[in-house]
Amino acid sequence: MSASSSSANPKKKKVWIWTEKKEVMTAAVERGWNTFIFHSGRREIAAEWSSIALLYPLFIEETGIFDGEHIKIASFLEISSPGQLEKLEPLNEQAENIVVDLIDWKAIPAENIIAMIQGSKKTVFAISKTVSEAQMYLEALEHGLGGVVMKTEDVEAIFELKNYIDKRNDEGSVLELTKAVVTNIQMVGMGDRVCVDLCSIMKPSEGLLVGSFARGLFLVHSECLESNYISSRPFRVNAGPVHSYVAVPGGKTSYLSELKAGKEVLVVDQNGMQRTAIVGRVKIETRPLILVEAKSNEDSQTHYSSILLQNAETVALVSSFRGIPVTSLKIGDEILLRVQGGARHTGIEIQEFIVEK
Questions:
Q1: Strand 178-198 relative to strand 274-298, pairing
Q2: Whether the Cβ atoms of residue 137 and residue 86 lie closer than 8 Å to each other
Q3: Which helix (H) or strand (E) holds 289?
Q4: 3-dehydroquinate synthase C-terminal domain: from which residue to which, for each copy (predicted)?
Q5: What are phi and psi of 131, to 5 degrees?
Q6: Is 222 within 8 Å of 315 (Cβ atoms)?
Q7: Is the pLDDT of residue 348 over 60?
Q8: Confidence at 142, pLDDT banded by 50, 70, 90
C-alpha cells in the first residue's frame, strides 16, 4: 500500500577526471567515470590506460579539448578577471561543452557563469582541485554548473567526490512511503526530546523520518504551520527522544542524540520527495512523552512500528492529506511510514537476524 512510487530525479551532474596516476584512474572507472583529460603530449598514458580499461580520453590543445579523432568536444578557457568572462558571451560559437579554469577565482565567477548561460544547452565544467571546490561549483546559485573536471592525484578525493555526487543525485528522488494505521496511543512520562532546527525552510507536509526502530520510520511534520499555541517555526522538527533513529542521506540512519550543527538529514514530504538539509542547531530538553504504535501491510506481511514524541499540540505526524497533531491522534487514524530493513550497524542497513521490541 504505497503512498508514492514515481521518480523525479534532477539533471545529473557530469564528472571528468584529470590525472596521471593509474590508481586514481582505476578508482574513477570503478565508480562509473570514464572520461579523462590529458595534455596533448601525454597520449602514451591515454593509450596505455585504454588497453586496460574502457576510457574516453580527451586532449587539451591550444584551441580547445579534442577526442582521439580530433573532433572538438569542448572549448577551454582560463578566466582570471571579470573582463575575461566576456569570452563566454558568444555561446553559439562555442562547442557543446565549455571547460573553464577559474584562476584565483571561486564562487562569484561561478555564479556569474550560471547567470550568463541560463537557457543555453551548453554544459560548463569548472576545473576543481579539491572536493570542497567541486561541491561549491556544483551548488553555486542553487543550480550549480553542469559538471566538474576533477584534477587530482589523490585516490581519496575520488571516493569523497563519488559519495557527494551519489547523495546529490538522490535529491528530488522519491522514497516509497507506506500507509499505516495507529493501533495504540499511550502517555509514558518524561524523557529527553530533541528539536532539530535546520538551515532550510520546510513547507506543509514536509518533515523528518523518525522512529524507535529503523524498520519503520514515521514522517514527523515540521512546525511550519501557524497555530493558536505558538508562532510558525518552518525550520524546526520536534522529532522525539534522544534514542530515536532519524533518516540521513545515503540510505543511512543516525540517532537523534548524534545530530549537531553541520550534520545532514533527509527532509521528506507526503509524496516521498526527498532533499538534503543541514542541521543548524539541536535542542535537547526534558518534556512529557507520548507513545504511538502503528501497523502496516507491505509485501503480504504486517509490520509493527512505534515512535515516542513530545505530548504537545505543535507535534504532528503526516497522513496522506494533512498533519495530525499527536494530541488529536486517535486509534484507527492513518499515517505515513517509511518501511525498511531493521538491522543496522553504525546507521547502515545490514542483513542479519534481529529482534527489537
A1: antiparallel
A2: no
A3: strand 274-298
A4: 180-357
A5: -65, -40
A6: no
A7: no
A8: low
